[in-house]
Amino acid sequence: MLNRLAMSIASHGFRARLFCAALSAFAVEWAVSIGAEECIVLDDFSNSTPGEFPKGWVPRDKSGTGVYTVQKEDGKLFIHAHAEGPKSKGNGVEADRPSSWNIEKYPILRWRWRPQIFPRGAEEHKGKEDSALGVYIGFCPPEDKAFCERSVKGQLGWSDSLSITKMFFSKGIGSLKYIWSERLPKDLEFERARKTVKVLQSGRPSNPGQWVEERVDLAADYRKYFGGGKLLNPIGIAILTDADDTQSSAEGDYADFRICSD
Question: What is the mean pLDDT of the chain?
């Protein structure tokens, strides 16, 4: 009986030590997560249905619904983009995710992506602007949102012409675009019509199935490209996988969009 009692005490002591060790590990993990960036999920596609266009997103044109679909792999949801054929089939059409947040509090944008097929012969800085992967962030004052929407859709009229200079240069309206290019070198930056483009990744990945995590400081990039005045809050993000300029095909995946504190 004493042996059984001793064994029971020892067993309880072992379980207690094990519990304390587990509790300590949890506390360390919790402390690390608190000490790291505070992040808010913009979209992890958990509310979307696999095989369908992502919920909460809006195609720039209805034909874009066939380009972007939610897929599931190893329990994770993501957007799979496949662009091919004419504009009427969505090739060259963006998918927008309207969302506004305090950029001073959450200046960091994070996401994961991976290219599958690069558009043949693309030269993003010379007019053949096709990319396997592209992420946009738009900036516009709330009172001028209608103007900005017309601008990105190429629908500016004569009545808008007089205000264009003021809108773009005095109010800091513009967009940042981050791409994964097959040919252009990493960290190359260039401008295309009030759109600043930065190459985050270059070349074909050694492991095509591997996701790459990105982290960009939107506030720093905005100040760098659009001036050091008042920061405009983003009005949303967009993705574009396209091959219309090269008349080829492009394919890539996007996942886990988050905004984070610095």
Answer: 82
H, E, C per residue of 234-249: EEEEEECCCCCCCCCE
Domain count, the chain: 2
* Residue 242 to residue 91: CA distance in whole angstroms: 6
Q: What is the per-residue pLDDT across 169-210, written as a single tens digit (0 to 9) for each? A: 555 678 999 999 999 999 999 987 668 999 999 999 988 889
- CA dist., res. 247 & res. 241, Å (int): 13
Torsion region of 211: left, alpha or beta (phi above 0 gives left; psi -120 to 50 gives alpha)? beta
What's the pTM value of the predicted model, to 2 decimals? 0.81
Please check whether residues 93 and 181 belong to one and the same domain: yes
Do 13 and 48 share a domain, yes or no?
Answer: no
Q: Which amino acid is at 116?
A: Q
